[in-house]
Amino acid sequence: MEGIDYHDGERSKAEFDVEEMKIVWAGSREVLEVSDRMGRLVASDEAFRKDNRTMLSRKDLFKNTLRKAAHAWKRIIELRLSEQEASWLRFYIDEPAFTDLHWGMFVPAIKGQGTDEQQQKWLPLAYKMQIIGCYAQTELGHGSNVQGLETTATFDSQSDEFVIHSPTLTSSKWWPGGLGKVSTHAVVYARLITDGQDHGVHGFIVQLRSLEDHLPLPGITIGDIGMKFGNGGYNSMDNGVLRFDHVRIPRDQMLMRVFQVTREGKCVQSNVPRQLVYGTMVFVRQTIVSDASSALSRAVCIATRYSAVRRQFGSQNGGPETQVIDYKTQQSRLFPLLASAYAFRFVGQWLKWLYTDVTQRLQANDFSTLPEAHACTAGLKSLTTSATADGIEECRKLCGGHGYLCSSGLPELFAVYVPACTYEGDNIVLLLQVARFLMKTVSQLGSGKQPVGTTAYMGRVADLMQCCCAVQKAEDWLNPSVILEAFEARSARMSVACAQNLSKFANSEEGFAELSADLVEAAVAHCQLIVVSKFIEKLEEAIPGKGVKRQLEILCNIYALYLLHNYVGDFLSTGCITPKQASLANEQLRSLYAQARPNAIALVDAFNYTDHYLSSILGCYDGNVYPKLYDAAWKDPVNESVVPDGYQQYIRPMLKQQLRNARL
Amino acid sequence: MEGIDYHDGERSKAEFDVEEMKIVWAGSREVLEVSDRMGRLVASDEAFRKDNRTMLSRKDLFKNTLRKAAHAWKRIIELRLSEQEASWLRFYIDEPAFTDLHWGMFVPAIKGQGTDEQQQKWLPLAYKMQIIGCYAQTELGHGSNVQGLETTATFDSQSDEFVIHSPTLTSSKWWPGGLGKVSTHAVVYARLITDGQDHGVHGFIVQLRSLEDHLPLPGITIGDIGMKFGNGGYNSMDNGVLRFDHVRIPRDQMLMRVFQVTREGKCVQSNVPRQLVYGTMVFVRQTIVSDASSALSRAVCIATRYSAVRRQFGSQNGGPETQVIDYKTQQSRLFPLLASAYAFRFVGQWLKWLYTDVTQRLQANDFSTLPEAHACTAGLKSLTTSATADGIEECRKLCGGHGYLCSSGLPELFAVYVPACTYEGDNIVLLLQVARFLMKTVSQLGSGKQPVGTTAYMGRVADLMQCCCAVQKAEDWLNPSVILEAFEARSARMSVACAQNLSKFANSEEGFAELSADLVEAAVAHCQLIVVSKFIEKLEEAIPGKGVKRQLEILCNIYALYLLHNYVGDFLSTGCITPKQASLANEQLRSLYAQARPNAIALVDAFNYTDHYLSSILGCYDGNVYPKLYDAAWKDPVNESVVPDGYQQYIRPMLKQQLRNARL
Ligand SMILES: Cc1cc2nc3c(=O)[nH]c(=O)nc-3n(C[C@H](O)[C@H](O)[C@H](O)COP(=O)(O)OP(=O)(O)OC[C@H]3O[C@@H](n4cnc5c(N)ncnc54)[C@H](O)[C@@H]3O)c2cc1C
Ligand SMILES: Cc1cc2nc3c(=O)[nH]c(=O)nc-3n(C[C@H](O)[C@H](O)[C@H](O)COP(=O)(O)OP(=O)(O)OC[C@H]3O[C@@H](n4cnc5c(N)ncnc54)[C@H](O)[C@@H]3O)c2cc1C
Ligand SMILES: [Ca+2]
């Protein structure tokens, strides 16, 4: 069997240059080269094996993660990997670990909120991992509402220290990754109290554990918060609980870039603009959107490859059955997810640009685009993570029964992914923020203030309120400007309708609360428009490679028309399209599926994922699914003995009608 | 803290008699009494503890399940429990086990497909559990398409035996629950071959393991297929793999109720009608629908109780924050699921009636309603299991971060539930069957053949194609006949539209394949109508108890209008309602949420679930969530030591920059 490629036939059907598509997916030839190299490095290193992950006990799993993290760090040093290379290495190791929080939250928090001196003191330690840090914001009783945190940091002017304290059970820090067992330090968010006055929530660098014996320092209680969703999955992470009993830290460990406490206990707002923190947020959310496209594409890759191997029904004259990927129902569930993966990839790439843009403007003290950038990233985080979580589970279902086995890779991928809908902002809470921004934008339309960035189309609201969709035959739906106008009109009209309904309330906050479910729908419409428009913009670039652009056009149309079909109620009730046009869109969609079909395998090959990264038998590159499933089964610990442990005590007495005397 | 009820205030707000609602939910006072008694019995027996389930290794989990099954059987015998009591006992033990397949599939298969003699021989053994059986249909390469199974049963007329054989790797039996480690016998589905001729797939009773030492019999290879989704969850089940190498069984172990092989190897169709097997299918699917309402109501109970405890934002003057259940977005996600749980309950109760009806008709040789009953149960299985799987995950998200902890109970509930979308018929494959039936129904409308049962409304197709929804103000949507007509018109029009589009194809099979995604949508519309109409019918009964009927009316309206809102595209594009009417429905929905709000806790109390059954800290009856979460965390094995295993080898060398020399 060695060397047989069961997808050979599929691959030869492709109508485009896969290698060129890999570059488009990666973002550049250089990124493809680096990521490809790191992917192979990880795949070829036995130390990074993960095929047994779902079978390990929590303790073994966790210890294994510590080993992998240390090994990774060793390799990073030995090979003198760049920051970019190291980050790809961690990506392919594909195991949540304390290092994610250290690099992804602790270091950025100090960079973003620390003064120059603080950065000079702490960052070199963190860069060398002489300290390991986490991000301790959430508490047992407080998450989304950060301003409601209860932990206190009371300034003691006598000793020039802050006293960090957990006054209640609900003030216990709860959830921070890396906290439970590993971190030596944390950025702790606490209410600043000086002279009995509450100055709101600020960040403090607190040492948690001794650098000598790793024991928690006096006054500190720490532990792991226990098992989370799934086997393997996020259980490799030590999300932790932390309580402070009057723990003292020097004054200079408050992060003081924007707000300072002086030696005398006076509070001073620095001249650094508060908005700076939004820059970090844009950065973090951009990485989340990019992670969404990775996770979704991974699931889609598995489901697509397996759908080409799996056959059910339709055998004629004893010949092979039909590949399930040839069923239109399978295509109508799978191909929109394939298209979404590409769509999220491109909007993620655009967010990288947005982050640079925002950073440059901040440096030039231009804050004008910040609220829009903030709303836009909040919305895209919400949209892409929700769609990805649902999409992974749909991919699992697309694999029928075998998708339920851990060896399919999909259960673990789902379990490890879903919290992205909750952390870094609960998706509904974020959409409400977007809605708030949209209502503000609409309300200012009359005032001459021009909406910017992704809300610029609102400036054409008068046109959008009355435009008519020009589609007369199915192919008309292939026109990007037709699609764009329909999505713009729908979003504008939904926002305007919400604003009109809001204006009927005497108290606008009450109105916002009462209409919040509708407002969330308007926010979703706006965010979908952003993704569609960024895909269309991408297609305006020159894209080299035989047939590459053509495939992307097909995917872009699938993405847009699938959204239109799924949310057709929005389009119809706002009068943006007619029922007839909706049905033409549906017809066009079917024809697009037929066009995508021969390219499906090549389109997922373009993600350039190694079998190690996919960790899915159903998704393996060569499609040799059945022997691999069969062999993997026998590795389960319950197969160590033919007769199971417990037979003598529990099964035999039952069969022999001797339970009465059994001790159970 | 002992004895405090944090939901006290909520409970006192309820506007109806909870005890009476419990009876409605249970189906009768008698069922409530039995289920309540069994629920308490399980909860009070230490042997049935399950709070540590997600922390156990696969082997420990499995052994524990064997112990529980033996203990349950012992109690059933000791207490001389009736069949009904025993089945409630297993329900509350709440752990997938080989007994599910023994009682739920093996015994019914023999009852349904065995001759009288076969039943007399095998059933007493099975009833006493002197043999343990499973249901071995699915193969590694064949699931949905049962006719494609590869296992062979070749008749050897010389020895009067069948030779059971697995000719290929893909013919290995794969998935049967209880097979991997426990079952002594199986009903094996295999292609019957006599004289080189293939007579299609039939069932055979095959002994798998020795009743003396539990070793597989000669020629038989068996094992467990390995880890499945989630920790705990379905991993307590030994889904198995099975290969036959020319295994011989006596001729009388073929299940011969409808099809017989004589001593001479002749195949004879018996005079028992083939349709009989459909009766079993209706029965099995009815239990699946009832399980859906149990699983969904359980998730909803957890999310509702926690939403009343959890507070975020909106604190005024330092007072408590707002209960998240008071946010309209939370309500618009949660209350439709609460309403769905009730809706599925009632349609499940109706299916019990349908099963009796079908059985009686079968006995009277009346097969006229069978195709309709078959399509209806297929559709309801698909609809309720899909909605329940999605609903559980939505409930988990409604709990924010804490829903991701295993101690919330929701991850395990999701993981254990989702395969219901796949087994007993993949949900899409089932909807395609429904669609086929609908198309047949529509095509026969002209012929004078009156559609029956749940398709009876199609007989009024002419009216339904042209009726106009009469809603003029929001309250008009409270009228059941208005709702019913809208759902009937939508479903009829979607089916007719599909039929018209199908007629454009020269080859109707090709047309069906091409339009299958639309056909699935028409099938969903039909199934939703069934659920809505059965809820409305329920409300036509006399329902005693203060305020009980009123609450059910609210829930029925929420269910219907939420569907209407979510699928508004269907209603608009078929012209069943206008955009204005859609917006009035939405308005009415908001007001219904406000009416449900004060009753929410009482409405989930009416499920009468013990804390043991819920196994969720977030859902505990007294609402004392935070101390319980905090205490539970410390029980995780990684908290056994303060400094984690692996510190010396992996963390310390990292911190001390000594990795270079470390052996990892
Ligand atoms: C795997 C994981 C890792 C994490 N890592 C970290 C970490 O490293 N550091 C850290 O500090 N934290 C971490 N967290 C915590 C995370 O940031 C919070 O869980 C998240 O912010 C959500 O807050 P919550 O849990 O309080 O949800 P809640 O806000 O309690 O959500 C419960 C429900 O209330 C609703 N709701 C809340 N507010 C409103 C409103 N105003 N209007 C309408 N509805 C509302 C939500 O939509 C949701 O349905 C992590 C969490 C997870 C799951
Ligand atoms: C937890 C669990 C327990 C089980 N227990 C048992 C048991 O006890 N005994 C037993 O015999 N089996 C058992 N099974 C097997 C189960 O019955 C099958 O998995 C199920 O029938 C689905 O079949 P499949 O896996 O072949 O899916 P497939 O049919 O391969 O599905 C793959 C995809 O193809 C699509 N598809 C298939 N056919 C068509 C079509 N004609 N048109 C359009 N799309 C199509 C499906 O919609 C799906 O998206 C169990 C499975 C699970 C997960
Ligand atoms: Ca919809």
TrEMBL record, chains A, B:
Binding-site positions, FAD: 138, 177
Q: Which cofactor does it need?
A: FAD
Active site, renumbered = 424 (proton acceptor)
Pfam family name, one: ACOX_C_alpha1
The UniProt GO MF terms for this protein read: acyl-CoA oxidase activity; FAD binding; fatty acid binding
Q: Where is the signal peptide?
A: none
For biological process, the GO terms are:
fatty acid beta-oxidation using acyl-CoA oxidase; lipid homeostasis; long-chain fatty acid metabolic process
Q: Which UniProt keywords apply?
A: FAD, Fatty acid metabolism, Flavoprotein, Lipid metabolism, Oxidoreductase, Peroxisome
Residue ranges occupied by any Acyl-CoA oxidase C-terminal domain in the UniProt entry:
479-656
Q: Which residues form the Acyl-CoA oxidase/dehydrogenase middle domain?
A: 134-236
Coiled-coil residues: none
The segment(s) forming the Acyl-CoA oxidase C-alpha1 domain are: 278-439
- Subcellular localization, per the record? Peroxisome
**InterPro entries assigned to the protein according to its UniProt record, in alphabetical order:** ACOX_C_alpha1, Acyl-CoA_ox_N, Acyl-CoA_Oxase/DH_mid-dom, Acyl-CoA_Oxase/DH_mid-dom_sf, Acyl-CoA_oxidase, Acyl-CoA_oxidase_C, AcylCo_DH-like_C, AcylCoA_DH/ox_N_sf
Transmembrane stretches, by residue range?
Answer: none
Domain named Acyl-coenzyme A oxidase N-terminal is located at 17-132
Which Gene3D superfamilies does the entry link to? Answer: Acyl-CoA dehydrogenase/oxidase, N-terminal domain (1.10.540.10), Butyryl-CoA Dehydrogenase, subunit A, domain 2 (2.40.110.10), Butyryl-CoA Dehydrogenase, subunit A, domain 3 (1.20.140.10)
One GO cellular component term noted in the UniProt record for this chain: peroxisome
Q: Which family does it belong to?
A: Belongs to the acyl-CoA oxidase family.
What name is this protein filed under? Acyl-coenzyme A oxidase
